Amino acid sequence: MGGRLPAFNPLRYNAQMYKIYSVGHSLYCAKLRLALRTKGLEWHERAPPADYLALVPTGNLPALVDGGLTLTDSEAIAEYLEEKHPTPAMLPAKLIPRAKCRELSRFHDTRLEPALRRLFSNVAPETRVAAEIDAAHAEICKRLAALSTLLEQSPLPRDRLWLSDCGVIVTLEWLDIMETHAVLPPLPWSNTLRSYRTQMQALPQVAAELAFYRPHMTEWMQSKS
Ligand SMILES: N[C@@H](CCC(=O)N[C@@H](CS)C(=O)NCC(=O)O)C(=O)O
Asked: Is the CB of 119 under 6 A from ligand 1?
């Protein structure tokens, strides 16, 4: 019954190359690259073409293309990669740490990053609205306090990268650059937040991604000033 299976060729299997639609300054594309780097996967990036909506109905970046599969939402993509390439694990094995990891991912995508996002239209000094900066700053301070507590209570060891770290690291990097460029008043960096960043930045895949991504962030900031 059925056709013959092709002979298993580990070289070909390992040489799998993912296609990612991305743009250089995108925070969620950097988040996805952190997962790809951690898994030791290979990818090539393409800018979204003019007919992107025909290829990717949500219009979101990043999108992953894996053969006939096109997938958006950085967290859905990361979980797909986690299930397809379980080693090294980026979700803890045990029930409660796994749930806490997912909680932090959701907190990032639905609370912390949306607070940062309020600043993006206020980077250029000529279009900066003081009331929007004040409101964004208040919200960011609230979210950073919550993040600090979540990290203090987290059962996840910090000697490796979990799925939930990927977005948080990139957003904290953006908050840092926003503060450095005086887009907003100083932020309440707790000792927990500082040591978390230091520990994360020491991981090789994080160092590699930030070395790649920071110039894109700086270029984007300079294009607005
Ligand atoms: N929750 C989404 C957010 C992605 C997102 O907002 N991406 C931005 C670029 S960083 C984007 O696609 N903007 C265009 C749009 O939303 O149409 C994810 O995790 O992928």
From this structure: no
Q: For residue 221, how far is its CA from the centre of ligand 1 (angstroms)?
A: 18
Whole-model pTM above 0.85?
yes
pLDDT tens for the chain, 225 residues: list them: 344 555 544 444 435 799 999 999 999 999 999 999 999 999 999 999 999 999 999 999 999 999 999 999 999 999 999 999 999 999 999 999 999 999 999 999 999 999 999 999 999 999 999 999 999 999 999 999 999 999 999 999 999 999 999 999 999 999 999 999 999 999 999 999 999 999 999 999 999 999 999 999 999 999 998
- Supply φ then ψ for residue 114, to 5 degrees: -60, -30
Q: Got the DSSP string for 84-110? A: HS-SS-SS-SSHHHHHHHHHHHHHIII
CATH number of the structural domain 95-224: 1.20.1050.10
Counting from 1 in the atom list of ligand 1, the atom nearest the Cα of 77 is: 20
Tell me the CATH class for 17-84.
alpha beta
Our answer on whether the CB atom of 174 is closer than 6 Å to any ligand 1 atom is no
**Domain map (residue ranges) of the chain:** 17-84, 95-224
Alpha-carbon distance 104 to 194, whole Å?
17
Which atom of ligand 1 lies at the shortest distance from residue 25's CA?
10
